[in-house]
Amino acid sequence: MLTFVGRGWGCARALAPRATGASLLVVPGSRPALTFGAARESWATDRLYSAADLKEKLDMSRFPVENIRNFSIIAHVDHGKSTLADRLLELTGTIDKTKNNKQVLDKLQVERERGITVKAQTASLFHNYEGKQYLLNLIDTPGHVDFSYEVSRSLAACQGVLLVVDANEGIQAQTVANFFLAFEAQLSVIPVINKIDLKNADPERVENQIEKVFDIPSDECIKISAKLGTNVESVLQAVIERIPPPKVHRKNPLRALVFDSTFDHYRGVVANVALFDGVVSKGDKIVSAHTQKTYEVNEVGVLNPNEQPTHKLYAGQVGYLIAGMKDVTEAQIGDTLHLHKQPVEPLPGFKSAKPMVFAGIYPVDQSEYNNLKSAIEKLTLNDSSVTIHRDSSLALGAGWRLGFLGLLHMEVFNQRLEQEYNASVILTTPTVPYKAVLSSSKLIKEYREKEITIINPAQFPDKSKVTEYLEPVVLGTIITPDEYTGKIMMLCQARRAVQKNMMFIDQNRVMLKYLFPLNEIVVDFYDSLKSLSSGYARDKAHSIGKAMCERLKDCLPRQLFEIAIQASIGSKIIARETVKAYRKNVLAKCYGGDITRKMKLLKRQAEGKKKLRKIGNIEVPKDTFIKVLKTQSSK
Ligand SMILES: Nc1nc2c(ncn2[C@@H]2O[C@H](COP(=O)(O)OP(=O)(O)OP(=O)(O)O)[C@@H](O)[C@H]2O)c(=O)[nH]1
């Protein structure tokens, strides 16, 4: 199985590419069939709180900061983060213990349908341990690399993480990437080996991998089954014992980090905040350090896991804040909020997420343009990592070119447009951005810079006016059973990848590091890796050109004259197909008769066709473009 495990972008300059600190992860083959135990084991649970109890609990005015723990759950996709979060919510009495608690924190429809977490979610849990009450702020994060931006943001609000690893699959690419995010943020890491109930589970092997790759002593690993609830209690103990409380000061002026935000049509922006200093309450005047705009706080509260308004939020707490911000850009992720007239040193922010995959998006019917525009605007209010540029195409009309963090991000956005806004769209084949270093002084003057970024293939400047083209590269990590290594290396080579490292993480698992041109892996690398067939063509321009021409040939209506369909790179034709002409039988009326007369008629017909071919314009039906351009993901 393959996942990207984080990336940025740098450019490959001729044959000397620069790494970007990004990585891509791939693990072929061995996804186990999941086997579940017949019955769920029972485990101790706190009682659910009554409304009065909850109100008392949520009054944090006298709650000691030493009893607060802020932590996140990180893992490779499907290793069981959300299931563990469900068990922790049940065990602490935050939600009722029923069989229906499946991925309680995955609130979006797309998350539930795909079984993946897209948006990080927060929950404040209370737990009694050795006679003391603790407040545990849990942030469930997405596993897929397209959303790793969400992970790094969430980590800024935490002092520790639970690193969940599947007891059968062992360490995977995203496990490595997420571990390093936590390690670099200097957080305490608690390794949790999950799914020990599986028939093929081998927790000892995974323990050794963790020791070898992350240098964490194997006896620090906690072995659990989140599905059955086995040993989940010790996870809570470890959170309390091994993760330090936040280093914060209630008496200092307010300093709150905005680590996430969502948009609510009625209340405006709901900002998720972690308080590093001070107190904030309803009615306070706050200022965004980023925009310097002042707002009045309308509501503060905690997520339990649903919004639970409180009187105040105190330093050390993680919660939400509503202050009449109309647009998520006003609550910039990474921004620091402080009280009016009490400015503070802003907290270190985050690097903004850079879109790496661009695709055209058009309404199926142009009359739907305005509806689609409003749907896209609303959806991007909730997902500020999507970039929008207006675009138009002769074939598809007016639309936009959107930038996404990855292919899954694009698919999820498209699915949300359809499900939440009932929009029907055409999505064109995704492309990556390129840079061109211009040589033409006229162009440099026009663009006002020497190096330009191109996000739309239609806007590529002419080759003769460019010194060099640059493309984004990512550092990819592939973890694979030993037997696939040879084939994977061939595949990587065929994708123009440069090997950087290779290491055995246990007796039969290898970790490979490659520098990949992003364009080579963005669409179908995962599928190729799964099939692991050999014989990949190095130069794919010809095969792509040929396939396009063939598709056009099948879709275009025939005319009275022959139509040549050509694919070209600049002036060089790389593929060609011909749509045969309809042929009128000009000899139909000649019953017998003179051969020269027949020849004359045929010659005149040929000349007519030649002339038509020169001047003939054909009307290309719109659905032809749709058929040719429509990508798999938009179906
Ligand atoms: N047998 C078994 N299955 C488990 C266990 N924990 C989780 N699962 C299953 O593994 C699958 C993935 O679990 P999730 O909790 O959605 O995984 P996740 O890590 O949150 O996934 P993403 O949010 O997409 O990254 C689900 O089908 C769970 O039911 C476990 O302890 N044992």
UniProtKB/TrEMBL annotation:
InterPro entries: EF-4, EFG_III/V, EFTu-like_2, G_TR_CS, LepA_CTD, LepA_IV, P-loop_NTPase, Small_GTP-bd. Residues 66-247 form the Tr-type G domain. Keywords: GTP-binding, Hydrolase, Membrane, Mitochondrion, Mitochondrion inner membrane, Nucleotide-binding, Protein biosynthesis. It catalyses: GTP + H2O = GDP + phosphate + H(+). Pfam families: GTP_EFTU, GTP_EFTU_D2, LepA_C. Transmembrane segments: none annotated. It is a peripheral membrane protein. One of its GO terms (molecular function) is GTPase activity. Coiled coil: none annotated. The keyword Nucleotide-binding applies. The keyword GTP-binding applies. GTP binds at residues 75-82, 140-144, 194-197. It is found in: Mitochondrion inner membrane. One of its GO terms (biological process) is positive regulation of translation. One of its GO terms (cellular component) is mitochondrial inner membrane. NCBIfam families: lepA, small_GTP. Promotes mitochondrial protein synthesis. May act as a fidelity factor of the translation reaction, by catalyzing a one-codon backward translocation of tRNAs on improperly translocated ribosomes. Binds to mitochondrial ribosomes in a GTP-dependent manner. PANTHER family: TRANSLATION FACTOR GUF1, MITOCHONDRIAL, TRANSLATION FACTOR GUF1-RELATED. Belongs to the GTP-binding elongation factor family. LepA subfamily. Belongs to the TRAFAC class translation factor GTPase superfamily. Classic translation factor GTPase family. LepA subfamily. This is Translation factor GUF1, mitochondrial isoform X4.
